[in-house]
Amino acid sequence: MQNTDYKIAIIEDDPIQRETLVTALEQQGFSIVSFADRRSAESYFDKTLPDLVISDIILGQEMDGGFDLAKHLLSYNKPIPIIFLSERQSEFDIYTGHALGAIDYLPKPISLNVLIVKVKNLLRITTPSKEANSANGEKSIIPDLEIVPNQFKAYWHNKPLDLTATEFEMLKQFATSGEGGVVTYDTLQSSTQGVVERNTINTHICRIRNAFKKITPDFNLIHNEYGRGYSWQNKDD
């Protein structure tokens, strides 16, 4: 994968240090979003999760702002690697950072060269599923829907969908076909190695819809295409 495939979030209250980090990582081709405080970062994460978070510990008036941010990230059902950057180097602080999920804890002032190498290594190690999915053509092309084929897991708006392995295989057909494409009855049946009978496909589709509705109650994106199968698209029934 190219560096541009990765999104990194930087949370640093010092504008000069923040700009230095942003510039250094953008020059490496990474996609960067940056924030000066914890709350604006959390608001963004509620909509879109990055592949990596780099954060200071002290954020404005919040002495443990970075730690609180890490706690917030733990509320998602998707692990996000964190690198802490801080002048605080006590054993307790370093222990706390790692206990909250940090993969690394670097002292300030930092070496940009060391940080860049660590970022590249961490992303290569912690996000292998992205590369595997792209290589296998099994990456979801539907916005806000993520699939992890080797784990039979799917996420809608970063929240896990409650699906059986059979239902996951059926949903994967929609995820890889994209919006508007018709997934035929034969395709849905063959995707489950024949486990699902033609006359029970509708029951499984209902269960898949209900899994989405547990996250977004007004979900109505999987539509019946009479005599053909189903499609994923925005339209009125």
Please provide a written account of the structure.
The chain has helices at 15-26, 38-45, 65-73, 91-99, 112-126, 128-135, 165-177, 185-191, 201-213, and strands spanning 7-11, 31-35, 52-56, 82-86, 102-107, 145-148, 153-156, 159-160, 182-184, 222-225, 229-232. With 237 residues, the protein is of the alpha/beta class. 25% of the residues are buried. Mean pLDDT is 87; it is low at 131-135.
Estimate the mean pLDDT confidence. 87
Tell me the span between the first and last alpha carbons.
39 Å
The percent range for helix content is: 25-40%
User: Which percent range describes the beta-strand content?
Assistant: 15-25%
Order of strands side by side in the largest beta sheet? Answer: 2-1-3-4-5
- Rounded Rg: 21 Å
How many H/I helices? 9
* Total DSSP E strands: 11
Assembly classification: single chain
Order of helices and strands: EHEHEHEHEHHEEEHEHHEE
Which class best fits the helix and strand makeup? alpha/beta
Query: Describe the biggest sheet?
Result: 5 strands, parallel
